[in-house]
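Could you help me review a protein record that somebody else here produced? Do not assume that whoever made the record got everything right. The record follows directly below this note.
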Amino acid sequence: MLLKDVSSACPGFNYIALRYFNVAGADREVRIGQNYKKPTHLMTLALRTALGDYPELKIFGTDYNTRDGTAIRDYIHIDDLSSAHLLALDYLKREKKSRVFNCGYGSGSTVSEVVKAAKEVTGINFSAVPCDRRAGDPPALVADSRLIQAELGWKPQHNDLNYILKTAWEWEKKLKE
């Protein structure tokens, strides 16, 4: 909204706002990834639990009206998000129009699916413990990315949960070195 206000007050000022969903993974060469001192993201917490940083992974809510009772979230690989940024810059330069785009895959994985995949990718059967829901957590949060695909020609290349976790796992192991 701030960008929209500035754009209204300053003719010629255009912007692109990208609404990220759950960014995850690391680049293929494991040069760039996320590094949180106190992570809150499920994938990072699962992988660090596998590494032994935490005794267990807490699963907040198992009674949602979803396919397995756990919350659904849309995860986007860092490389796909990078390509969205480059396309957005080209669009802004070419079209000189302000736009807002969702960056996600338009589908989601449940918490249980992420935990299962993390155990498969790491080969470690870490402890995952059901807990009460967190206040305000919706059952599902998934991006509608049709606009960015139509307007910018963005095509996700890494919409695979295991690939996202594999690159994130390699990154987490690298951080431990």
